[in-house]
Amino acid sequence: MSNITDQLLRQATASTFEELAFLFPEDECSESQLAVPLDATVTVDFHGPMRGRLVLRVSSCLLPAIAANMLGETESQKVPLQRDALGEMTNVVCGNLLPALAGADAVFRLDAPQWRTDAIDARDGDSPLATAVFGVEAGRVDAQLFVFSGLEWLETVRSPHAIA
Amino acid sequence: MAFNVLIVDDSAVMRAMIVRTLKLSGLPIAAIYEASHGEDGLRTLNDEWVDLLLLDVNMPVMNGEEMLRRIRAEERTRDLAVIIVSTEGSETRLAALQAMGAAIVHKPFPPEVLRDTILQVTGVTDVEYYGSAAATGDSFDF
Q1: Count of domains observed in chain A
Q2: Quick one: which of A56, B28, B36, B134 has the most CB atoms within 10 Å?
Q3: B90: nearest CB among A16, A88, A107
């Protein structure tokens, strides 16, 4: 299941960057992209038949470009708006991932995006169900999906939707 | 005739994106009002004349589904044109919103999809607004 979930997370993240921020993720990171830290983090928690968290970490050098492409050049230098823009990206990735993962009948509630300055352990001892890493312009993007409860439920509904 | 539009979304960035899209769309917009949740949106509807509501679903205080339910229950706003602009992917929830007469635009959206949906729900056509030359153009300088 992990490979399919990785693929769905990869698709949701890539398409959101392309369609919302007009940035085009590369599957492989170059050495220079790998050298840039992932120092901007936003999380979105979701609740429903399964409960978990989407974590989006990006290199902060990408934030002005994300904000500029979403809001226009004049707004792109304002740091709070840059953070909000990344938050909205995370919200859209999560909103598009969950029905792809769990099927279109499942109803989820998404919490507001949270800007994180602390270490982003999802919860003690948890490891991500899926991860997607991209190179984007001069930086990189790392998306992680954590599921805290409801994995058994996911297994039961998963197969009909997995091949999409 | 120009539209008064109300955008209800808890994300200031998404509201700004929608405003930007509306301004670039060429649609005749008179006033754009903004609200960050359903309760705030209902207050605006009470105070201002609005022709078109662009409404998110997942919001604090009052979500979009509840706001739409209250709008349809109120005689003054019963027939208001409503477009849900959301990442919502649940067919169950989307069907409930559509049953209340809302059109759906899924985030992320190409600008022309929002414009075309606005034209559709407001019942006017490109031809009526811009003449026949513009009716076939679907490109945006975005």
Answers
A1: 1
A2: A56
A3: A107
